[in-house]
Amino acid sequence: MASRIGKNISVSIFGQSHSAGIGCVVEGIPAGKKIDLDELQAFLSRRAPGGMPWSTPRKEADLPEFLGGLVNGVTCGAPLAALIRNTNTKSSDYDELRRVPRPGHADYVANMKFHGAQDVSGGGHFSGRLTAPLCIAGGIAIQLLRDEGVEVGAHIARIAGIADDAFALHGLSSTDVHVAHAKTFPVLNDAQGERMIAAIAEAREAGDSVGGVVECAATGMPVGVGEPMFDGVENAVARMLFGIPAVKGVEFGRGFDVADMRGSENNDGMRIVDGRVVFESNNAGGANGGITTGEPVVVRCAFKPTPSISRAQHSIDMQAGTNEGLSVHGRHDPCVVVRAVPVVEAAVALALYDLLLESRMD
Amino acid sequence: MASRIGKNISVSIFGQSHSAGIGCVVEGIPAGKKIDLDELQAFLSRRAPGGMPWSTPRKEADLPEFLGGLVNGVTCGAPLAALIRNTNTKSSDYDELRRVPRPGHADYVANMKFHGAQDVSGGGHFSGRLTAPLCIAGGIAIQLLRDEGVEVGAHIARIAGIADDAFALHGLSSTDVHVAHAKTFPVLNDAQGERMIAAIAEAREAGDSVGGVVECAATGMPVGVGEPMFDGVENAVARMLFGIPAVKGVEFGRGFDVADMRGSENNDGMRIVDGRVVFESNNAGGANGGITTGEPVVVRCAFKPTPSISRAQHSIDMQAGTNEGLSVHGRHDPCVVVRAVPVVEAAVALALYDLLLESRMD
Amino acid sequence: MASRIGKNISVSIFGQSHSAGIGCVVEGIPAGKKIDLDELQAFLSRRAPGGMPWSTPRKEADLPEFLGGLVNGVTCGAPLAALIRNTNTKSSDYDELRRVPRPGHADYVANMKFHGAQDVSGGGHFSGRLTAPLCIAGGIAIQLLRDEGVEVGAHIARIAGIADDAFALHGLSSTDVHVAHAKTFPVLNDAQGERMIAAIAEAREAGDSVGGVVECAATGMPVGVGEPMFDGVENAVARMLFGIPAVKGVEFGRGFDVADMRGSENNDGMRIVDGRVVFESNNAGGANGGITTGEPVVVRCAFKPTPSISRAQHSIDMQAGTNEGLSVHGRHDPCVVVRAVPVVEAAVALALYDLLLESRMD
Amino acid sequence: MASRIGKNISVSIFGQSHSAGIGCVVEGIPAGKKIDLDELQAFLSRRAPGGMPWSTPRKEADLPEFLGGLVNGVTCGAPLAALIRNTNTKSSDYDELRRVPRPGHADYVANMKFHGAQDVSGGGHFSGRLTAPLCIAGGIAIQLLRDEGVEVGAHIARIAGIADDAFALHGLSSTDVHVAHAKTFPVLNDAQGERMIAAIAEAREAGDSVGGVVECAATGMPVGVGEPMFDGVENAVARMLFGIPAVKGVEFGRGFDVADMRGSENNDGMRIVDGRVVFESNNAGGANGGITTGEPVVVRCAFKPTPSISRAQHSIDMQAGTNEGLSVHGRHDPCVVVRAVPVVEAAVALALYDLLLESRMD
């Protein structure tokens, strides 16, 4: 039980990298919501592979067909079901992988868990390709959140040790969150972006890969959304983000830096300004006790370097019980972080929209 | 819907800091399991306040009464229900807080969410005291995991910028994980521990507080536990850990450091040694694709400095709509990290035991 | 995983017949709701045993203590936790039952399922006594529903082959639903009630027991509550009702009679009267496609005769593997139906209130 | 949140009668299970419309395409996703229904719930056609149960007041459950079946429809499956069965008849025979306290007569606020009971298989 998430918005992801198709079933979207399918397609294109020096040469248009839930582009209350056909598959690339697991991938654990019955082609259900249906669901959540005054956007915060500028925790506007992701290479600081691109290229030439960090923010969340203890903003967003392959860390607001701070520095003071409550800072990243403060929700997640590299690695032959060397050929991104930006937005939007619906019961 | 978590082991936490009692209902523990109640009490004592210079003077024995689920110390298949009475409460300390929210606490957001009906005394359901029932459930999970060959232990990884030694990601033994937490001040490196204690004392004298990091490991998890996508090891552990008040970041294995690594460095190579599969490193922290590799699961979480400080802070009067200064008096830990160590162990154990049960259906 | 139910209102039931106590944790009740505790106590008293010729001589006051979730009788947003102490227990009555299961009880299946570790005293977690915490949760739901204009009430529809009058499916008023349950013996037709009482007495004298049917109705449910397919009114109410020990059948509206009807008889026609939509009948029992029509929700459930009878029965010795005769002594109701009336109301109210909250997300 | 069900086997149903397709996502099936797709297709054909005098003339082959989860007909651990294209749709039949709701259908309540945005064509997501994907999931569950020694089969128990023979509650064999459903008209007593066919024809000619009852049994369930209180056999099966359109009542074992029985009649005595525990009867219908006894699980559910009839009915114009007469034309079954037989088998099998997996955690 693994590929479904959400209480009020239930997202169920299906398909494997080389099965007939991949898709999602999304339940709980209120009826009567107009979905802008062109905008959704543009959102999916940001994730889709193809052409850029930092991504795999595999080209997939990622055109979803809506099997149910939409009537003339408007939600009808039935589950929304979308399908993307898998077209550009080369299963022969992967025959060796049934025996020799790729380090850093799920090949070995999947073989143990599923007793050898797992779909190995292209990583099967573990493929990064499964983030496409997550983006369908999340791209719709982004639109639904906008109707509620919430804007979600992300940028590359770091790649290969090179840092982008950070989102201002405090004072971040709804416009600010959209600056980066509108660019082909979604950073705030383009000069740093150039250095990242160069570092990616350098790793690729070395037959290697690099990791990074994505930062995402949501502005306009009303005060009081999220639940205490286990269904707070951080719980929900983190659980969703760790569903993206390669994520190894998640932090909110000042994140791990709080470990070195004092309470007097970290606490966000409050003032009354023009009759309204305002915070003097947003070190909390938009949530206290799991509940939104009204300040922007700001989260960062760390992506490990793409495990598929052409450099020689130590692996094993699971059937023969012998050592094997492995060089992963085929088509792979030397850095998943760039294409992960919309995926992070999708994940954050889904988690927040679910909580926003939940707050209707307060 | 907030204070319940778990699929196969469902934990429901109830109570407020100053209500009649706090406790938990734990469903799903197999029948016929002998619970060592003395060991459980010792575990709870590690979290309980009282006496140490880094903790609140409020003393609570945290003696749970089992209302159901146990017959002569053996689980009977019915839900396990435990109650800790609240005895040492001083509600008068908190009257002002109904009007003037403490920065860094949930006072303001709770007031907005619950329309002023929240229990303000002692932080109500948001109090760190609610980690006591989590420790009942988790302390039992630790015992149940041990029966399966899994050992869970944690230590203070960092306080106020002072770092403890780290758990060896690779080669960590079941003995290693228990070294630190057996100590009064649970660190691996006692000299660094002394410096931390001094830093805590210094902050306390300044009317301030400090944050830190706890690192937790579980050895002996079999290969193949955890589910792809949203119910993997990281998803489940992170969601649980963010249920502990003050946690702002969670990372696994090399965590955020992966952002600066190359694939060739980060990938964990594999070898056959004496006919068995071994990993050459454990940068993954025990899970790939959400599924255990058989290597130790290693996780770190960041705690913000205790928000309750006696130094003057900016707050507001929510009823009058005016600015207010606030100095939080009463009994508070200048650093929650020390007492959080068993809480982190409890949370990790609960998440892993739930997944271990799930794997019976593979 | 068994003793928890509900999506928006989560009810977790704990305790055994002879454990320290029984109780419930109810999560999801909006904050700021005033609970009338006297009314709740009166409701619980309708279920409590004691004194009447049709019930067990065991007397339990069923006085709940609220451990959390209430501040001065008002919900505070934290889970509501209630405890009833078990006081009048005679465990010695049950020692034989560890070996010799009572026909019609869960003794045998519990022994097989829980490998002999089940709590046998008084039926353990399977005891009808566990309906007391269900009544706490449901009694509160009844009050919350009333705030929304919904009235829930039940009556004995049948005992030992003797039928009470039926609720009018169509035209039932909010007053009508309360007529019967205000009586000591909750029937609509008191003459029939007298005959039922006589039949119960007769069965008791014969060392036997009788079954029956309870009918429950909820008026005032707005149109459009309930979800298609698996979370409709019938699904939710039925799942809850089968949680009451001894229930073997559940039917809505015309129920099993529809099998013998034609569409032209069964369909509920519609008319516009004074500008409002009205149905001409309510054979559907208040729901079509799982969704409320605005007509009263009417449900009936069948209770089997109390399995504990003093007449000799065939049983076995599970340890010796031999045949045994069994006469169940101790304190038992010759007919559970009378005391089940408030339990059915509680169950129906909980299911409907959960759906009512769900409809806020439409 | 409506079209998903199951804890260990999660079934998510999508699509509308006239959308691009209908289908299901089934999560939780263990990896490595061989699915017999020919047998599945034969199972689906029993439900598919077409040709018989008791069913709609609409012909749909109901050929599912597996989008994921199967590799060479073997489950791979990823969610199983199946799609049936909607081909033979005539949306123009239904234009009037946006204004004038069909009595006995969900048209009116859907319009209220979904604010007019519901998909009206063919009943949208409320169509009986949505039982096809339920049969995909359930047909697979039937195969998986057989691997565990469990056989599931159903028959028509009653149509239009004409009763088939009943399954023997006690002594029913795995062969017995398959006798009826192998026939074109699935009854035990063919002479009674002929009378039912005549009654259906008579109703059709009268522009009317008839209801009925389906009885289903599962043999071979081991003792100890099912959970106390809310996740017992009856709770799970009933919740699933009420997901089938037109079901208005569900009963187990002796069902509503228990209301008129005495405990001494109804209790199932036990004996030791050849060293094994045997029951002397099976009035309980295979479960006590929600947990299987090892006897066959026997359940009956009542279906209302098809609401779509060509006879004139009273309805309204929801837009104009006026009274309207309505004769439902188009293609409809005069009796859904015949085609419902495999649907009931599917529902029962899914519920039982989920509980069987759950019992692995005992």
Automatic annotation (TrEMBL), chains A, B, C, D:
Binding site residues for NADP(+): 47
For this UniProt record, give its keywords in alphabetical order, as a comma-separated list. Answer: Amino-acid biosynthesis, Aromatic amino acid biosynthesis, FAD, Flavoprotein, FMN, Lyase, NADP
Record organism: Slackia isoflavoniconvertens
Cofactor: binding comment: Reduced FMN (FMNH(2)).
NCBIfam families given for it?
A: aroC (TIGR00033), PRK05382.1 (NF003793)
Checking Gene3D superfamilies in the record gives: Chorismate synthase AroC (3.60.150.10)
Role of this protein: This reaction introduces a second double bond into the aromatic ring system.
Tell me which cofactor or cofactors this protein depends on: FMNH2
Q: Which CDD domains match?
A: Chorismate_synthase
Listed GO CC annotations: cytosol
Protein name, entry field: Chorismate synthase
Q: Which reaction does it catalyse?
A: 5-O-(1-carboxyvinyl)-3-phosphoshikimate = chorismate + phosphate
Whom does it interact with, and what assembly results?
Answer: Homotetramer.
UniProt cross-references to InterPro entries, sorted A to Z: Chorismate_synth, Chorismate_synth_AroC_sf, Chorismate_synthase_CS
Gene that encodes it:
aroC
